[in-house]
Amino acid sequence: MSADDPxxxxxxxxxxxxxxxxxxxxxxxxxxxxDRDVVTxxxxxxxxxxxxxxxxxxVLLDVRxxxxxxxxxxxxxxxxxxxxxxxxxIFVTGQASDVEQIEAAYETGAVDMVWKPIxxxxxxxxxxxxxxxxxxxxxxxxxxxxxxxxxxxxxxxLESADGLVVVDCARRLLYSNPAADAxxxxxxxxxxxxxxxxxxxxxxxxxxxxxxxxxxxTVEVDWGGPALLSTVRDMTYRKHMEAELTLRNEELETLFxxxxxxxxxxxxxxxxxxxxxxxxxxxxLPPDGRELLEKVHESGERLHRLLADLVVLAQARATRTxxxxxxxxxxxxxxxxxxxxxxxxxxxVEVRELPERLPLDRRWARQVLSNxxxxxxxxxxxxASPEVEVDAWSDQxxxxxxxxxxxxxxxxxxxxxxxQLFRRGxxxxxxxxxxxxxxxxxxxxxxxxxxxEPRQGGGSEFVVAFxxxxxxxxxx
Length: 476
Known about the structure:
By secondary structure, the chain is α/β, with parallel strands linked by helices. The protein has helices at residues 21-31, 44-53, 71-80, 99-107, 120-158, 178-184, 236-281, 287-318, 327-337, 339-345, 362-378, 435-445; strands at 13-17, 37-41, 58-62, 89-93, 112-115, 163-168, 173-176, 202-207, 213-222, 226-234, 348-351, 387-394, 398-404, 449-454, 460-467. A 5-stranded parallel sheet has the order 2-1-3-4-5, with helices on both faces.
């Protein structure tokens, strides 16, 4: 806090000591101000008590105070204490011609004298000098304390768990903290950095001779001259886990592809046979038998769609291709595919402003829009005709789309779960439970995400965002 802050603990204090109350009141009115506190007392003993409680910028001390300690005795006691030895004292006296008194005043530690009757301008100017001096001293003390805290914080940072190294422009090591020494197995303070470790501004992954991988994040600093400061982290375990997870994802995708291929053929065969039985012998079957056969056909069709969605989901988890696409062109294709469903439901689909370009492959943009618009057409409220709105979405770092509906909405406790595999907001509608999981996975592959929000006036807003520059690293 600054000294001129009324709430600051650093407000300078002025102590007025005089046994004559009118003089005390006059000096208090003269010296009072927004940048200081003026304390008045009527005796030397009271002044000593105040000086024990607080620090003062200056003491105005009356020389003659009968009935107790006079000014000289009080000054000697002030100078005799370690805490108040350097407190400035200005004597106030009415004996301007008494040379011995003046000499005695300076011998007891006075820094100045003023004479009665007091000249307001001179007294205030003299006091202001000491008030400003204490303000500066307190500011210096505060800066010194802050500097000490900064040094302590720097010392803690330099000894932190992360490794820190500093090199000059010739890549000569200037500093290395214990964490960095441990990472590089440096036991000799004079030893250089390991071969291959040459910090440069930015992020680097460096493989050490023993096979470990360390990450360097380097910035330019002034270390008594141009230098580079790098944080060093052991990334060996993380790199190993990333490679392991990438392998598992590839194995999972392969598994889904095999399952989809090996099961699709027999499933299609079962469906074809059930179609043939229904066509050739359906009229000969009792009603219950025909109904059961139709359920077999429907279950096979649903399982076939589920397998297809699982294969798409596996591909979305590992595929990131394409330099971008025109969403207007993609949307036209999606609406064409959904035309029969739109007409049969009496839906109204409104297309508002779309982004100029989406940073993902056309195939995945089509998959996302098809899933979101298909859901909006499916989930309506009270059997009303669907009202679907497709619009652009963006923020400073991402671009995407929002699909709005007038359906029953998604309860808050289900808004996250519906993007997980086999989770739906309601069990009343048919579906594989993989559509929104695919949407989110595609968004993640392209550095974004997907979520749902309530729509003003009823319904839901499904938002899918993609990062224009950054994307997932292939591990999820």
